[in-house]
């Protein structure tokens, strides 16, 4: 079956018209072959955002800017229409952010996805955000540094003014005189310092000469310490402690009138009885010396004969 020439021409014209329509819509940011949802966002400034600009979320392209227009002729309100592929679900609290892609001022849209479980409906208006150009952002970042630098310069100026007011010519003269006095002290004391250093050097030499003697002395002390640790001094100390303990027990017994010595020391009656006995014995000895015949009888001659005669 032959296709008529007119049909071929009509088919070609139809394809050309379809391609033109697709290209026109593509240049406007619309892709007629892709099923998408449209969302809107309102800005007061878009910073030069163009149609067909890329729309991404988490660094992945999910759509493009499909249209930009003023809201009913109001220049202060710009409506940006974005087309998102239907395979992507956008939470209702998401934010449409316009940002700079380079220093040349090119703009793109970043979809900051929200955490809501409710998806945004088609043709919903989402919150818009525009931070400005990179130059504006850099200026915002550098502004606090600039302010700190200015405050630092002001502080330096204040310090320099204080120094200038403090170091008057009179103060400078005082400082100069103080430095001169210090130099004079150093010069006058230089010989004394040199003498002290010489004495220290002599002491060091003497220590070096006496090093062997010091070593021997330390060795003798070590030997004495070893001998002392190996001796029976511990047992001698223990014996002395035992003797002191027994003496303490004996003294306690005496104080408590235990035993003869304790009673003799602590009981007055025994003392007085003993004192009386000694006095009586002393009186007896005195009387014995004075009157020996009273206590002793001597019969040396004739005592036996008289008894025989009787």
Polypeptide structure, described:
Among the domains are: 1-33; 36-132, Beta Barrel (Elongation Factor Tu (Ef-tu), domain 3), CATH 2.40.30; 253-293. 57% of the residues lie in helices and 17% in strands. The chain has helices spanning 5-27, 134-166, 169-188, 190-209, 211-230, 233-255, 259-266, 268-290, 303-309; strands at residues 36-43, 54-57, 60-71, 74-85, 95-100, 107-112, 125-130. Strands 1-4-3-2-6-5-7 form a seven-stranded mixed barrel.
CATH class category label of the domain at 36-132 = Mainly Beta
Residue runs with pLDDT of under 50 for 5 or more positions: 303-310
Please tell me what the overall shape is. Answer: elongated
Structural class: alpha/beta
Could you state the order of secondary-structure elements as H and E? HEEEEEEEHHHHHHHH
Give the terminus-to-terminus CA distance.
Answer: 217 Å
Strand content: 15-25%
DSSP summary, beta strand count: 7
What percentage of residues falls in helices of 4 or more residues?
A: 55-70%
**Can you name the CATH architecture of the domain at 36-132?**
Beta Barrel
Which sequence of strands runs across the widest sheet? Answer: 1-4-3-2-6-5-7
Secondary structure tally, helices:
9
């Amino acid at each position: 079956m032959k296709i008529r020439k007119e049909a071929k021409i009509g088919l070609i014209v139809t394809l050309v018209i379809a391609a033109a329509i697709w290209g026109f819509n593509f240049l406007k940011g619309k892709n007629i072959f892709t099923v998408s949802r449209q969302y809107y966002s309102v800005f007061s400034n878009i910073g030069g955002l163009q149609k067909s600009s890329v729309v991404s979320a988490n660094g992945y392209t999910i759509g493009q800017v499909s249209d930009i227009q003023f809201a009913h002729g109001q220049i202060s309100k710009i409506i940006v229409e974005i087309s998102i592929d239907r395979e992507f679900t956008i939470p209702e609290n998401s934010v449409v952010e316009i940002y700079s892609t380079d220093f040349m001022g090119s703009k793109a849209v970043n979809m900051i996805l929200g955490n809501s479980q409710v998806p945004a409906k088609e043709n919903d208006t989402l919150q818009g955000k525009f931070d400005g150009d990179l130059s504006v952002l850099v200026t915002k970042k550098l502004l606090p540094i600039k302010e700190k630098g200015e405050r630092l310069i002001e502080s330096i100026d204040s310090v320099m003014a204080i120094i200038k007011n403090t170091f008057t010519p009179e103060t400078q003269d005082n400082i100069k005189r103080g430095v001169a006095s210090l130099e004079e002290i150093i010069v006058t004391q230089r010989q004394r310092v040199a003498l002290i250093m010489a004495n220290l050097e002599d002491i060091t030499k003497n220590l070096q000469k006496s090093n062997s003697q010091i070593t021997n002395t330390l060795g003798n002390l070590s030997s004495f310490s070893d001998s002392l640790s190996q001796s029976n001094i511990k047992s001698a100390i223990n014996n002395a402690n035992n003797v002191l303990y027994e003496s303490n027990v004996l003294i306690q017994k005496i104080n408590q009138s235990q035993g003869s010595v304790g009673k003799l020391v602590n009981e007055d009656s025994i003392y007085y009885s003993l004192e009386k006995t000694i006095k009586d014995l002393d009186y007896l000895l005195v009387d014995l010396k004075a009157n020996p015949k009273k206590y002793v009888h001597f019969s040396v001659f004739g005592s036996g004969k008289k008894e025989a005669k009787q």
